[in-house]
Amino acid sequence: MKTRLALLGATCLDGIRGIGKVFILFGQVLWWLFVKWPRRDIIVFQLYQIGNRSVPVVVATGLFVGMVLAVQTYYQFVKLNVQSVIGAVVGLSMVKELGPVLTGTMLAGRVGSAIAAELGTMKVTEQIDALESLATNPVRFLVLPRFIACFVLTPVLTIVADMVGMVGGYAVAVLGFGISHHYYVQYTIQQIWAWDVMVGVLKAFVFGAIIALVSCYKGFQAGEGAEGVGRAATESVVVSFMSILIANFFLTLMMG
Question: Any residues with CB less than 8 A from the CB of 222 and at least 6 apart, and which?
């Protein structure tokens, strides 16, 4: 019993210690963000890697989520004879919740694991030590470009997912189930306000920061060998997923 309690206590302490180190890393990123940026070509490369190459995954996710949401909403609303408001339900669900959360999870799986594996490999092969020996700060050179790319492009990709999801919902509801185009569009415009879109975008900014910080931290903490790098990549995805869901709960409470 004591051994289990000791193990639980050690796990909790490790978690708290890890959270503290992530916030320290965030403070270092903010410092370099206002002091000195890396070269433009490094940032542009990360923008391409994180943003452009994630578009197909985000588009496919948003499209089918919007279509499935429209199907499920239709089957429930047709019983109440209120199927004309499906557009509002699909639109609000996409812009406030599903769009930012699913985009964040997709990026955590595709981008976060790649960042953790890349930085973990650099740590194992002592490339990070080589940067420090050349008087190059690893946070500025490695973390800051990835943080900027995730922070800036996650909201952009979220908006793409929102638009594609609403198009998919429209195709299913109007073209598939024969709902009136006029009522679908009218209720969508009436129920979605600028603040609703802003809530989703603000969430996406937070999720992008979480993905970058957690992935870079796990990469820097990778153990020795291929096993250590693989474990770092896996942990970055799991921790990012959990952090996004927890942050989404509190952000929803604060912003509605």
Answer: 116, 119, 120, 121, 123, 124, 228, 229, 231, 232
Reported as a pLDDT band with limits 50, 70 and 90, residue 83 is confident
Q: To the nearest whole number, what is the mean pLDDT of the chain?
A: 88
Helices within the chain (DSSP H only): 2-35, 40-50, 55-77, 86-93, 99-107, 113-124, 127-133, 138, 144-170, 181-191, 194-220, 225-255
pTM: 0.90
Q: At what angle do helices 55-77 and 86-93 cross, to 10 degrees?
A: 140
Q: Helix 144-170 crosses helix 99-107 at what angle (to 10 degrees)?
A: 130
- Picking from 212, 222, 217, 18, the residue whose alpha carbon sits closest to that of residue 104 is 212
Beta carbons within 10 angstroms of residue 76's beta carbon: 12
Contact 38, 141 (CB under 8 A): yes
Report the C-alpha gap between 119 and 125 in whole angstroms: 10
Phi, psi for 81 (deg, rounded to 5): 60, 40
